[in-house]
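Below is how a single chain appears once it has passed through the pipeline. First comes the sequence as given, then the structure the pipeline wrote out for it. We keep one example in the README because the format questions we get most often are answered faster by looking than by reading.
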Amino acid sequence: MPAPKVATVDAFFAKLGEVERPHLEALRALSLREGNPAGLIETLKWNWPAYTSPGGGMLWTLQCFKGHCSLRFPVRFFAAQQAEVEAAGYEAIAGALKLTWDQRVPKTLITKLLRARIRDFESGNTAWSERTPADAKSAKSGSAKSKRRGAT
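Resulting structure:
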């Protein structure tokens, strides 16, 4: 079920239940602590809290689901961080650190991820979704399959 529509980030946090609130508020506090000196803006994107540059480029989002929350980054950025997340005992899914409600919030790890993403963004990696070489190869083979199917 999709999250209920909210008008503001504060409204998003106001709607959280007892289970979700501690994790999401901790992620928000870390996001604001690291994002404010970099000039990031807290806003809503796709109904989730997001941290963007003044020009609107998104650096990360916070997401809340029934059994977990996620700190989501661009997939290409997070791929380089995935091994460290897993080595710390947390689940890394495509582009995100996944935290179940029974796990503690790894503040040191998250701080490191946020700082790395800010540096990554400031160095010019501003696209939220970029095609990786694997994506391009997959798209090319899918296109070739479509052409073959259409040729009959």
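Strands lie at 41-45, 48-52, 58-64, 68-72, 91-93, 96-100.

See the next section for the split statistics.
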